[in-house]
Amino acid sequence: MLFNSLDFAIFFVVFFIIYWLILKNSKKNQNLFILFSSYIFYGWWDWRFLSLIALSTIIDFTLGQLLSVSRSHKKFILSLSIVSNLGILVLFKYFNFFIDSLKALNPTMFDEGFSTLNVILPVGISFYTFQTLSYSIDIYNKKIDPEQNFIAFAAFVSFFPQLVAGPIERASHLLPQFMVKRVFSYSKSVEGIRQMLWGFFKKVVIADNCAHFVNIIFENYNDYSGAVLITGAILFAFQIYGDFSGYSDIAIGLSKILGFDLMKNFAFPYFSRDIAEFWRRWHISLSTWFRDYLYIPLGGSRVSILLQIRNTFIIFIVSGFWHGANWTFIVWGLIHACMYLPLLLFKSNRKNVEFDKSLNLFSTLINSVKMLSTFCLVTIAWIFFRSANIAEAWSYLDRVSTFNENYFVFDPDLITLRFVFTISFIFLGIYSEWLSRELNYGLEWVKAKSNYSQYVIYTFLAILIFVYSSSESEFIYFQF
């Protein structure tokens, strides 16, 4: 069930009425209804997926209880959680990748009759797997106590606003919110609707329009000039940002309406002045997950510089592999590791943390150059993320870097009214997010305007969303 679909609109209206009008006085019944509705939401794609999320829920709830009472077998119990969670993930997401890679290295390794598995990748499996896995690890490290209420825990695992594409929540933050009485808040709901509006604008108006041209350019890159290919890469940068951060805004906004607070997942990453800052602002729930559960256990930055380099490459490569079973994602992560390395060696990876509030013209120009440079580096890496395989990515980059007399020729078939509008929408999004860069999301600056100005802006965005919502398109990160 897609957020940008009529099915979901009907689903949520019915859910809202039952949740806030019929069950408002019972926390227990609200949690049970969230669980029931979340399973309907998730099973809408394929009811068979429900068995996997139910299995992960039961395993980690049970092992969590055992971790709290065991004194001598904690490591073994934690190992069971790690093996079971990652085992399910590897089987459905990476098994065929490993087999195909081994076959490529040694064609005689397997019998002729040996074949890969014909399995469907469950939607959002990487997200809820990491969410349940962190629960067990936190209990082992005595950061949290195990949840005794199975319904609350199951609702935490399957919470439909963030189930299929995050944010990847921690039990220490989200789970306690299921244990307190929730009271409807008009102001919080209005805030949630405002954030959802911005999320839908980024997804439907920016990302989906960018996708139209990105698909044409990347699928026919041999037919276009270098300038067109550069344009395609830039459009993909805004497509994936609008698509993924748009989902996060919708999820956070929905949760606010239901009385929940989710963690911030994006903090205007394309305004970053270096790669380190980019990763502090992009997919925050994943980057902090890897920091807390992989980087720090490996020694983090408390070890020698050689081990810091090792840890950095491990984090970025694993992060790339998390995104998909394709060498393109691994290379994408490797590229980011290489771009991060100079910052680590010169100990400048914490230089840019907060936005520069100086109005000095020189510092503004310097920051602008840094932002543009970082965006260019990120965009180059996105080419590998978007390409079907390594060969296509290299071929795409080769055509971009090869100058000829037709380099700046732009196919007139691409210069349509839709293209002009798409570019305009991108600049509108950039401008709005720049005004909100020290706030939580891109439309928050509007709250300081008069009521009349607010209504005009909201109506304008709503009309654009309605005009461009004729077709339902999946969010990119559903495949991860």
Main features:
65% helix; mainly alpha; 480 residues; 2 domains; 17 helices
Overall description:
By secondary structure, the chain is an all-alpha fold. It has two domains: 6-184, no CATH class; 188-273 and 352-479, no CATH class. It is built from 17 helices and no strands. The chain has helices at 6-22, 27-43, 49-69, 74-105, 125-140, 150-158, 171-174, 186-219, 226-257, 275-281, 284-295, 305-323, 327-345, 361-386, 390-401, 417-435, 451-467. The radius of gyration is 23 Å and the shape is globular. The relative contact order is 0.11.
What is the element string, with H for helices and E for strands? HHHHHHHHHHHHHHHHH
**Beta-strand residue fraction:** under 5%
Q: How helical, in percent, are the residues? A: 55-70%
Q: Span from first to last CA?
A: 16 Å
Number of helices: 17
Number of domains: 2
Instruction: Please identify the structural class as seen in this structure.
Output: mainly alpha
Low-confidence stretches: none
Computed over alpha carbons, the radius of gyration is 23 Å
Number of strands: 0
Average residue-wise pLDDT: 90
